[in-house]
Design brief:
mainly alpha; about 85% helix; 7 helices
Length: about 150
């Protein structure tokens, strides 16, 4: 059941990214789906921390239903989201000029955030890349810490 709790966390994170894309690229209002997904993620983390893994099925159902409902909300932009994943991966992982700084910034997020402020005036592209990766690293570290401490305690 612990594995189901972890899987639903990642699936709920995916649904949040999916609806964030729809919110930015569609004329439809998806704030309900984003707010329920965010609440579902926080409740899933609290449920895992409490050791009540039976509720993970509910969060899994919510995430799967919301992933499917996205096509009903805006089918054209949903297809565009899935088409944009490949080019995003290609540009992210083939940018050899910044990939080392991005990995460093994501793994050691205080360094990434510091590099963002140090390079902001001089190297704008590198500063923005390090700042984004540092922020994502901080978010992922916080969620992983919450998840691990919730499972271990």
């Amino acid at each position: 059941m612990v594995a189901l709790g972890v899987i639903t966390l990642f699936l709920t994170g995916y649904v949040l990214v999916y609806y964030a894309y729809l919110a930015n690229h569609s004329d439809r209002d998806v704030s309900f789906f984003m707010s329920v997904s965010l609440i579902s993620m926080v409740m899933n983390l609290c449920t895992n921390a409490g050791g009540v893994f039976g509720l993970a099925w509910l969060y899994l159902i919510i995430a799967l239903v919301f992933a499917g409902v996205g096509f009903a909300v805006d089918a054209e932009q949903s297809v565009a989201f899935y088409r944009s994943v490949g080019p995003w991966l290609k540009t992210t992982f083939t940018n050899t000029k910044l990939i080392g700084w991005q990995i460093l910034s994501a793994v050691l997020f205080p360094v990434g955030i510091a590099l963002h402020f140090v390079w902001y005036g001089k190297k704008n592209e590198a500063a923005l890349a390090c700042g984004k990766c540092g922020a994502w690293g901080l978010l992922v570290c916080g969620i992983l810490l919450w998840m691990i401490l919730g499972i271990a305690l």
